[in-house]
Amino acid sequence: MHLVFIGAHPDDEASAGGTIAKYVDNGHRATVVVATRGGRGHWEMPSEELERVRTEEMKKAAEILGAEVVFLDYKDADVPAGDDLREELVDVVRGLRPDIVITFHPLVWRDDHRRVGLAAADACFKACLPLVETRHPAHRPVPDIYFVGSPMLPVQPDTYIDITDYVDVKIESLRQHASQLVKWEIDEDDSTAPLEEVIERVRHRARQLGVESGVRYAEAFISQRGKKRALELFPARD
Ligand SMILES: [Zn+2]
């Protein structure tokens, strides 16, 4: 089985890092698709240099999770809305042939995330239409699409994945995105250590989701089909 996470920036996959690591550890394949190389995620580092840094960070983070990486090279903070992105993702889905796709919910606040999530969900269907021609042949409809759960969304998660055994791997992978775990110097002066703050927030959130689902640590998703299908995320090894 093949799990594909489709995100906008290097580090977006961290929201599903425990699930990806668990999936791989259960004998399956995982790929992280990143629409951009995150070239605007810094207050002063030039964009090209930042893209190089974040490309390497993404590769290391994915390696820790056991996932492959595909970069699409859209411009950070300028991911296009609409048909071009969807057509590109149709071909990506056909090339990767996923059984499960995790992406952003189309109602998330940030435009890059929203655009990627909407295009990815639409592409998962459109990829099955043989008369829609792209470089790769048509793929069957992706049976399971999940959106990353967030307290900012009006839709509640319906799928919790127990990541108790993978929370440390999730955090170790997140730590690779070091360029993102620093304090922006346009902020007010503050002596706190942002890296450990972010790590603590991530661990706390996983613990909260664990409490909600009766385990120690969890990640939460919204099934596109509105069903609780957590077990189907982890079929037996084939
Ligand atoms: Zn992002």
Q: Specify the structural class.
A: alpha/beta
Count all strands and give the number: 7
Give the termini separation: 8 Å
**Main sheet attributes: strand count, strand direction, barrel closure:** 7 strands, mixed
How are the strands of the largest sheet arranged?
3-2-1-4-5-7-6
> Number of helix segments?
6
**Average pLDDT number:** 90
Kindly estimate the percentage of residues that lie in beta strands according to DSSP: 15-25%
Question: What ligands does this structure carry?
Answer: zinc ion
Specify the oligomeric state. single chain
Binned, the helix content reads 25-40%
Cα-atom Rg, whole angstroms? 17 Å
**Which shape, going by the Cα principal axes?**
globular
Uncertain parts: none
Taken in chain order, the helices and strands follow as: EHEHEHEHEEHHE
Description:
The chain is α/β, with parallel strands linked by helices and 238 residues long. Helices cover 37% and strands 17% of the residues. Strand 4, helix 4 and strand 5 form a beta-alpha-beta unit. The mean pLDDT is 90. Bound molecules: zinc ion. The site of zinc ion has 4 residues, from loops.
